[in-house]
Amino acid sequence: MAMLNELLTDGRPVTRHMPYPRVVVDTPAWSTALIGLADGACTLLALWAETDTVHMALLEGETVAVISLSCPDRRYPSVGRLHPPALRLERAIRDLFGLEPEGLPDLRPWLDHGQWGKRHPLGAPLPDRAEPPYAFLPAEGRSLNEIAVGPVHAGIIEPGHFRFTTNGETVVRLEQRLGYTHKGVESLLCGAGLDQAARLAGRVSGDSTVAYALAFARAAEAALGTEAPPRAAWLRALMAELERVANHLGDIGAICNDASFSIMHAHCGALRERVLRAADAVFGHRLMRDRIVPGGVTADIDRDGAAGMRAAVAEIRQRLPKLIAIYDNTASLQDRTVGTGTLSPELARQYGAGGFVGRASGRRFDARRALRMPPYDVLSFEVPELPDGDVNARVWVRIREVEQSVRLIEQILDALPSGAIRSEPAPAAEQREGMAIVEGFRGDVLAWLRLDEKGAVARCHLRDPSWFQWPLLEAVIEGNIVADFPLCNKSFNCSYSGHDL
User: Fold this and answer.
1) Is the pTM of this model over 0.85?
2) What is the pLDDT of residues 60-88, one digit of tens each?
3) Which of the four CATH numbers 3.30.310.50, 3.30.200.20, 1.10.645.10, 1.10.3210.10 does domain 204-464 have?
């Protein structure tokens, strides 16, 4: 922890930032952090900005801290110059705030598609201007072709553009263009009350509404110096595991479907539907939207609900092993998934890849265990990990996580404490800040916020794990054939909406 300790010791502490420390550093200290990132001494968790400040959340071991650098001249040393995982984050900061990362090797816009009517809407807004067409990176060589896919796709999915450079059927390069689902979430959150902001946070990425609502709620509670009642914390974990199971089951089936093995898709889809119906019966919403709020939860589980949940879990326990056997013993399916889209452990570590993407490539980080969030600190579960890094490994990590989540759901139902499900947070009488990291089904979701003296959100940044996973999808498809891109893409299942904000 030498580097973070040094930064925290030398920096100026920011009071009322909880539960992780935040310090304001000077340019030399910021540059020291960049060298640490480049050397692998720590992991970049998030990079965001304000009008005249840039913030960076770092992880070293199990220690989390935030360092901040003032930018009075609206410039700062680029993180992406030495640490590629920051490139897209800094391009987004340029688009939104107009802060210039000095030395950034890629100055193309990222979120700004020239449709906002102005530039730098969250910084010092400037009139819009005509920009040349987006310049994709060139590729030189004999017999190369380009294949442009999207942003409009054949299925009912979110928009994203994928530019393939191929030699025959082999992919030489893939370049993504995202930002089509930019919604101005950070602008909408500014000035919102806690309840309205919580609803907005839960809608950033629909399949992760529990994870986002939980991250926002815990960040708000940290800022206000309060905690949800014990029963609420356990109910939150129950919702999080239900969300994880439903999404993993859907992904396992969809991956198999992209390999033309539709029987797995049908069976996994039926199990996923079983989970969603159980969630609806207990919490009143299939996706459990708006059920997690600052201070606790808005829905409780009764005896009948617990019985229905146990029945759903028992059905998964009974049917899942048969589906696993089908997957594992179908040679034509294994031929498509084994060795396809391999992510190296080195890249997974460099990008801090979370969730099943990282764990299938040997990066074992799981916020539930590493950060000891209650009630996971007293629950028994394992974090599955594989070294292979291919589509098959990402399927198996999902399978094992479903099994672990089923165990967790049973433990939660067995030991759910009694008591209140919500405590109303006391309003802030002064400016306060909070940050939280929770384990969503894709990986770690981060929320940072500042509350003003009246308790409204003065600034909020939400970071989806997809920010660090989308670039890795570009890497793993190289050398594979074009026809295997759907498999690779679905095995990552990155969020467009969570990335674009």
Assistant:
1) yes
2) 988 999 999 999 999 999 999 999 999 99
3) 1.10.645.10
